[in-house]
C-alpha cells in the first residue's frame, strides 16, 4: 500500500484513537513517535528538575560544568537556584519611552549565551506607526533608519510573555517546559525533543529553535549560568527568555532592564504591594498583548506619559 494512503481503519487504532479518518501513515507515525517519546522520558526518569534526588542533581550539574569547561576552556558555573518564597516576577515596558535602540536585544544575547551563528535573539523590537497604534500587521522588525527614534514611529519590544495560562506548556509531549512557582516559564533542554509543538502554540512567536549547532565565541561566553536558563544549548532544542533566571533569582535585574538607556523597562515582584511593578499596574495605562486569548501574560506594556 502507498505510504501516503489514508489510514482509516479505526479498528486498529486502539482505545487512544490515534488513527483518524484522513490521517496518513506518515502523520500517524509522527504522532505516535512524539507520544512514545513522552511516555519513555516520563516513565524512565524524573519528569522535573526538582524531582531528581539531590545527589543525582549535584552530580548532573558537576558533569555539565566539566563538559562546558572542556568546550570553552574556562570554568563554568551551572546553578540550580530555586524560586524564592513570596515572589511572582512580572515585567513592565514603557512604550512612551522606548527609543528602539535594540540595546536590550544585544545585552540579552550576551547575558544568555545565545548563538551567534546561526543567530538567535530572544527579543524582537517592532517599529510601529504612531497614527495606526499597536498593529502587528504593519509592524516592521527590520527597521534600519539612520537614527532612532524615527519621527512618527514608536517601538514595541516583544519576548516571552511569561503567561500564567501558558499554551506552550500544555502541548509539550515530554513535560520539558513548565511554569515555576515564581512565574518564570522554563525549559529543561535535556527533555526537549525538538518537536516544536510549543512554538506552534505560542501566540507571541517568543520561542526559538536551534536548527544548527549553536556557536558562542569562547571569549564571549557568560560563565555564570542556570540549568533552566542561559547554559549552553545544543542543536535541536527550543529556547526562550527566562527573565534572566540566573540573575533574577540572585536578586538582580534582567540584563535588558539594566542596559536600557531611557529606563523604559521595569521588573519586580508582583506580590509586593510596595513594588514598582505593582504601582505601574495600579496607576498607569496598562495593556497586555492579545488579551482576548486569555493567556494572562505577566509582561505588561504601559504609557507613563
List keywords for this structure.
two-stranded parallel ribbon, 4-stranded mixed β-sheet, 305 residues, Alpha-Beta Plaits, single chain, alpha+beta, 8 helices
Describe this protein's structure.
There is one protein chain. The protein has 305 residues and is an alpha+beta fold. It has one domain: 2-Layer Sandwich (Alpha-Beta Plaits), CATH 3.30.70.20. The protein has eight helices and twelve strands. The strands form five sheets. The protein has a four-stranded mixed sheet with strand order 10-2-12-11. The chain has a two-stranded parallel ribbon with strand order 1-8. The radius of gyration is 21 Å and the shape is globular. The protein starts with 24 loop residues before the first helix and ends with a strand.
Topology (SSEs and partners):
Layout: H1 25-44, H2 54-72, E1 77-79, E2 89-94, H3 103-111, E3 124-129, E4 153-158, H4 167-171, E5 177-179, E6 185-187, H5 197-201, E7 208-209, E8 224-226, E9 238-239, H6 245-248, H7 255-259, E10 265-269, H8 276-283, E11 285-287, E12 299-303
Parallel strand pairs: 1-8, 2-12
Antiparallel strand pairs: 2-10, 3-4, 5-6, 7-9, 11-12
Amino acid at each position: 500500500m502507498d505510504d501516503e494512503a489514508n489510514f482509516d481503519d479505526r479498528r486498529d487504532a486502539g482505545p487512544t484513537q490515534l488513527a483518524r479518518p484522513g490521517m496518513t501513515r506518515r502523520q500517524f507515525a509522527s504522532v505516535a513517535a512524539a507520544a512514545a517519546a513522552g511516555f519513555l522520558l516520563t516513565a524512565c526518569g524524573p519528569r522535573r528538575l526538582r524531582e531528581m534526588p539531590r545527589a543525582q542533581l549535584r552530580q548532573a550539574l558537576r558533569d555539565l560544568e566539566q563538559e562546558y569547561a572542556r568546550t570553552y576552556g574556562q570554568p563554568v558555573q551551572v546553578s540550580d537556584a530555586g524560586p524564592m518564597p513570596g515572589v511572582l516576577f512580572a515585567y513592565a515596558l514603557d512604550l512612551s519611552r522606548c527609543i528602539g535602540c535594540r540595546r536590550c536585544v544585544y545585552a540579552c544575547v550576551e547575558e544568555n549565551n545565545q548563538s551567534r551563528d546561526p543567530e538567535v535573539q530572544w527579543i524582537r523590537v517592532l517599529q510601529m506607526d504612531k497614527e495606526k497604534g499597536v498593529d502587528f500587521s504593519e509592524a516592521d522588525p527590520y527597521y534600519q533608519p539612520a537614527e532612532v527614534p524615527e519621527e512618527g514611529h514608536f517601538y514595541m519590544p516583544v519576548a516571552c510573555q511569561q503567561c500564567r495560562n501558558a499554551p506552550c506548556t500544555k502541548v509539550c509531549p515530554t513535560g520539558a517546559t513548565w511554569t515555576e512557582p515564581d512565574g518564570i516559564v522554563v525549559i529543561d533542554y535535556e527533555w526537549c525533543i525538538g518537536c516544536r509543538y510549543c512554538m506552534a502554540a505560542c501566540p507571541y512567536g517568543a520561542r526559538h529553535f536551534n536548527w544548527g549547532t549553536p556557536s558562542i565565541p569562547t571569549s564571549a561566553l557568560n560563565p555564570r549560568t542556570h540549568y533552566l536558563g542561559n547554559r549552553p544549548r545544543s542543536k535541536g532544542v527550543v529556547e526562550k527568555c527566562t527573565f534572566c533566571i540566573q540573575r533574577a533569582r540572585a536578586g538582580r535585574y534582567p540584563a535588558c532592564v539594566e542596559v536600557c538607556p531611557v529606563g523604559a523597562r521595569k521588573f519586580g515582584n508582583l506580590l509586593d504591594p510596595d513594588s514598582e511593578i505593582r504601582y505601574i499596574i495600579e496607576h498607569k495605562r496598562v495593556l497586555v498583548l492579545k488579551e482576548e486569548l486569555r493567556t494572562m501574560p505577566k509582561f505588561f506594556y504601559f504609557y507613563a506619559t
